[in-house]
Amino acid sequence: MLERPYTLLSCGMSIDGYLDDAGPDRLLLSNDADFDRVDEVRATCDAILVGAATIRADNPRLLVRAEHRRAAREGRGLASTPLKVTVTSQGSLDPSAQFFAAGDVEKLVYCPTPAVASVSARLGAVATVADGGDPVDVAVIVADLARRGVGRLMVEGGGTMHTQFLTSGLVDELQLVVAPFFVGDSRAPRFVGDGKFGWGPTHRAVLASVRQIGDVVLLRYALSDRFVAA
Hints:
Blueprint (H helix, E strand, L loop, with lengths): L5 E8 L18 H12 L3 E5 H7 L8 H9 L7 E5 L10 H4 L5 E5 L4 H8 L4 E4 L6 H10 L4 E4 L3 H9 L5 E6 L27 E8 L2 E7 L8
Parallel strand pairs: 1-6, 1-7, 2-3, 2-6, 3-4, 4-5
Antiparallel strand pairs: 7-9, 8-9
């Protein structure tokens, strides 16, 4: 059996399943109370993973924001914020992006085997570059993260990463926040793309809980027998 971290996929989407609109600015799908909830979840994890497209589109910091949560992690002998992880095909990322520049925490970049040398030349000064397989395989990535001591992984997007993790059967828990509006633009990115998923009309996902947070709703799904309800 594959040794891998407990994997939690976290996503916010519109009523019609979009992660963003087609405009140049980031679409805010949540509210302050839910952003704080996500921060709390981040603080419980050992690593946060996003795809390279998310870094290019949103320039996220991916840090634990609340001082008391950072202090609590440090009190447990951990870094103040989890390891930051991304996946790229060619390493076409800006080394000055906030993913790399923000936070005194290790950054890890996975890329295809043939690209390791070129990606290391571009990003090796700001991150550790690791072999993700040829082609990149999320099963290889999670196994390597487990070897690096990651016991709890949070996947925060985007749609390509969501699709790959879900179709590979590597997600234990889905936390899906639904915003109270439609995007209605097929040019915009969706929550997931096409793929063969383990949950369908004859094998329905288990809805573990529903929680209203202001004007959004959090749907929490148990996607494996490793799901932890607490």
